Amino acid sequence: MRRTRLTHACVAALLMIGSWTAAGTLPASASDTAGSAGSAARADSAPASAALLQAMQRDFGLSPARAEARLAAEQRAADLETEALEAAGSAYGGAWFDAKSEKLTVAVTSDADASTVRDLRSSGAAVRVVEHSARQLDAAKARLDRLDAPSGVSSWSVDPTANTVVVNVVEGERADNDVRRFLSEAREAGPVTVRTVEAAAETFAAGTVGGDPYYTGNVRCSIGFSVHGGFVTAGHCGGVGGQVRGWDGSYIGNFQGSSFPGDDYAWVNVGSGWWTVPVVLGWGTVSDQLVRGSNEAPVGASICRSGSTTHWHCGRVLAKNETVNYSQGAVHQMTKTSVCAEPGDSGGSFISGDQAQGVTSGGWGNCSGGGETWFQPINEILGRYGLTLHTA
């Protein structure tokens, strides 16, 4: 592999290794939650590179100081979320980051121990009393996962801020008999709220085009994150054994593991002159971003995406563990974001601060008019295949 600039070459190699979360991709070729496999300790230096701070200033309208303060607050919230789950136990009702107060809000049921509530508040979290525990909501959502969803139902997930399971129905489809039947069965499963979305969820595959992508057959996708021995990406981009070529057409490796639908993740081995680097490409819009770990950002936190079609865009984490009903079948345990994406971004990187979050699966809309994009969490992928994230 040759490239005029070493940095760009490293990024291209990275695209084949990681968990870059770009935008969803069409089922070009079809496409357990592991804790912190491959996660590295955070650096004691700045909370993020200039690349991410610049992107947040652009997409969120923040000053440099406010962008840095936001990232620092989100890191504290991510650490506190894990502690809150352990402290609240069966009374835990979920948690989310509030951008206005820059605090984590922890929901607990009325039977939460008074000392636990005091400890949570003293740690800096806001506490909200709710009716349903996270376990109850997760159980209701799991019952929906066993239902046969019609195409008019886009997705469903637990919304901790509303303390309910939210079912997203495509605009104009709510009166459809199959949709009405699904909603009736969903309400029997537990607390459900129905919301309307503009379009159905779809994967974002693309035909062969230029850029810094990777190719399999006539499909272009984006590299997610580098792992030792290869990179992770979206499962709908290729099946096991499929050959992968780089931006210059040279052979990189083959899909060693792939799952879609049900899941949407895969990993590709790297060789033949290609190598892995712990970097997410900035595409000249921002400087390249180093990857230092994979600590999971809470709902409400800011997050950015890199992909070979639309490059850098930022938004917020909207929901976790969402089931997305693609035309090829349902995909589980997805994270929904307000970040836009377009065909060819599939498999690309989602990152929060310097922490890898996941790889782009699909969504709706585009980067001109806006939309939403889902990603498959990186730690689940690492755990599924026994991979180790390549970190700086």
TrEMBL record:
Q: Is Translocase one of the keywords UniProt gives this record?
A: no
Q: Point out the signal peptide segment.
A: 1-22
Q: Which Pfam families match?
A: Pro_Al_protease
CDD domains referenced in this protein's UniProt entry, alphabetically: alphaLP-like
Q: Which residues form the Peptidase S1A alpha-lytic prodomain domain?
A: 132-181
Query: Which SUPFAM superfamilies does the UniProt record give?
Result: Trypsin-like serine proteases
What's in the keyword line of the UniProt record? Answer: Disulfide bond, Hydrolase, Protease, Serine protease, Signal, Zymogen
State the similarity comment.
Belongs to the peptidase S1 family.
Name of the protein described by the UniProt record = S1 family peptidase
Origin species, per record, is Streptomyces cathayae
Q: What does the organism's lineage look like at the top?
A: Bacteria, Bacillati, Actinomycetota, Actinomycetes, Kitasatosporales
